[in-house]
Design a protein that fits this description.
This protein has 548 residues and is an alpha/beta fold. It is 30% helix and 18% strand. The chain has 14 helices and 23 strands. The strands form six sheets. A five-stranded mixed β-sheet has the order 2-8-7-6-20, with no helix packed on it. Strand 6 and strand 7 (130-135) form a beta hairpin.
Length: 548
């Protein structure tokens, strides 16, 4: 235990607060509420003009959550659960944003946020034991505690294609869609990107555009969503049983209510395997993921399930050439983000929708008039990028974060992200992340993770203040041990065998590797609780001592 004399900041222009929160998505909103309820002076910083995080920015046509509404909602407030009623099992972007605004109104959160503001640097002051954050407005804020709720998906990435700036038509990025209606009627529209976002855009725009050209390099596996309205009776049942469902979600590897099983694929006779998959296909949603327990560790089981889905694609898509191009090969099913759709494959049966297989006809450049592939130029009126994010680490590396002894986060993470629990980092005292890249992150329900992380941070701060402690960070041994556990769990996972943003391979020059905790939310929560129960064994603290 280090003892440091109390010190006042030498910055006279800075605004002093107790807790600084970066981000106004669901994690940041809950953090502001939680620490305010603890009696702290809290300020949140948000680049957007309002709350909602990724749902504030992602207004593209067809934007919809692929987690059920019962999962993708807060569990900390029984009152909010009862007062808000979802209209669909899988909510669309406008309803999710309306929910975020409802929560912000209900809890009066906006008064504690500075909107239209970005943090440009956050530097640890060792003497004063606080973080000093500078924003693009010129404001400086100082806080003993900094909470980075920047989210795993918040820094958009353009495709690595020459000529983007030359295109003279309408150019849109899915992750920064304009706040006004976009008219597709009669227009020749091109879409680059066929991940979850691209799939949602394609199935929506294909029915509206004059012509739609889909430029596909790597097809994704996507399953039928089978969305449905939530009837009044169903909503009443949900509200009656919310508390029990929330308790079950904490015990679920997904952090949600999605069914899971311990049944291996080859434990069933062949006809029963097919029957189980057929039923999952009919039920829709992510029930397919929970049909067999060993899909991400048994390659033969994985390939058999992939074949089942590829057969479905062939049955739906009428053009055999397009159907073959849409069948993903070369990577395990569910090693890329599992997508959900509403008649995505049926979209390719429309006469105005054209699939360009970029594996056979690669994109050469973007021109003034459209896209040139090896076979020639496709003229377009509109071009849409659905090419994803610099995920997991991008948002935290988008500004300068400097810890103890001048250690920069960019240097600490030059070979990939490392932390303890995805929440704390050696060398960065009192800096906390929610849904960090070494936790379950994108592999479980992000709202459940966010609530867990914020509560854990709050308990740690309460412990520190009760003990007269001014700063905390994990020891190097603690951080190393966690990263070893993350690596050991990742080693047998088939997720490593696909080039995706899950492993960082979608960003040129970015270190690659599976750094997320693949052990499931329930095991992650247990690990967090064990640290707290031990009195934060494995953490180094600085103690406040009053000057003599």
């Amino acid at each position: 235990m280090r003892e440091e004399p109390m010190s006042k900041s030498n910055s006279t222009q800075a605004e002093r607060v107790d807790v600084l929160v970066v981000g106004a998505g669901f994690g940041g909103m809950y953090a502001v509420y939680k620490f305010r309820e603890m009696g702290k002076k809290v300020v949140g910083i948000e680049a957007g003009s309002n709350v909602g995080g990724v749902w504030y920015w992602n207004r593209y046509p067809g934007a919809r959550c692929d987690l059920m509404s019962v999962d993708y909602s807060y569990g900390f407030s029984p009152e909010i659960e009862q007062e808000w009623t979802w209209s669909e099992q899988f909510a669309a972007q406008p309803e999710i944003l309306a929910y975020a605004n409802f929560v912000a109104d209900r809890l009066d959160l906006r008064k504690d946020f500075r909107f239209d503001t970005r943090v440009t640097s956050a530097i640890w002051d060792e003497e004063a034991k606080l973080w000093r954050a500078t924003t693009d407005t010129g404001a400086v804020l100082e806080a003993p505690y900094a909470i980075m709720s920047t989210g795993p998906l918040s820094i958009p990435k353009d495709p690595d294609i020459p000529g983007i700036d030359r295109f003279k038509g309408e150019l849109y990025r899915a992750q920064k869609w304009p706040h006004h209606d976009v008219d597709f009627a009669g227009k020749r529209v091109g879409v680059i990107g066929t991940g979850s976002t691209g799939i949602q855009i394609i199935q929506e725009v294909g029915r509206k555009a004059g012509e739609l050209f889909v430029f596909q390099r790597t097809p994704s596996f996507t399953l039928p969503m089978r969305n449905r309205e939530i009837t009044p009776d169903y909503a009443a049942e949900m509200k009656k049983h919310y508390r029990q469902m929330r308790a079950a979600m904490k015990m679920n590897p997904t952090g949600g209510t999605r069914p899971v099983t311990s049944r291996p694929y080859f434990s069933l006779p062949p006809d029963q395997r097919i029957e189980a998959m057929e039923q999952a296909w009919i039920n829709g949603g992510h029930t397919f993921l929970g049909t067999f327990a060993d899909l991400m560790v048994n390659e033969e089981a994985n390939e058999a399930v992939a074949d089942f889905v590829r057969d479905k694609i062939g049955q739906i898509v009428e053009d055999p050439v397009a159907a073959e191009a849409l069948k993903p090969r070369g990577y395990p099913i569910f090693a890329r983000r599992p997508c959900l759709d509403t008649e995505y494959y049926e979209t390719y049966n429309l006469p105005n929708v054209h699939l360009v297989d970029c594996k056979k006809d690669a994109i050469v450049e973007i021109t003034e008039k459209g896209i040139r592939t090896e076979s020639g130029e496709t003229e377009l009126d509109m071009l849409i990028f659905a090419t994803g994010y610099d995920a997991l680490t991008g948002a935290l590396l988008a500004f300068d974060v400097v810890g103890r002894n001048g250690l920069r986060l960019k240097d600490k993470w030059k070979d990939g992200p490392v932390s303890h629990l995805g929440i704390t980092m050696t060398g960065f005292p009192n800096l906390f992340a929610t849904t960090g890249p070494n936790g379950p992150a994108a592999l479980a329900n992000i709202i459940t993770i966010s609530e867990n992380d914020v509560d854990w941070i709050a308990d740690l701060i309460t412990h520190m203040e009760a003990k007269g402690l001014s700063a905390v960070e994990p020891t190097q041994e603690t951080e190393d041990a966690w990263m070893t556990r993350v690596a050991e769990l990742a080693a047998p996972s088939l997720i490593r065998k696909a080039n995706t943003w899950w492993v960082g391979s979608n960003v040129k020059g970015k270190p690659t590797g599976l750094t997320m905790f693949v052990g499931g939310f329930a095991k992650y929560r247990e690990a967090c609780e064990a640290v707290a129960a031990s009195g934060y064994e494995g953490y180094a603290f600085d103690r406040v001592s009053e000057p003599a």
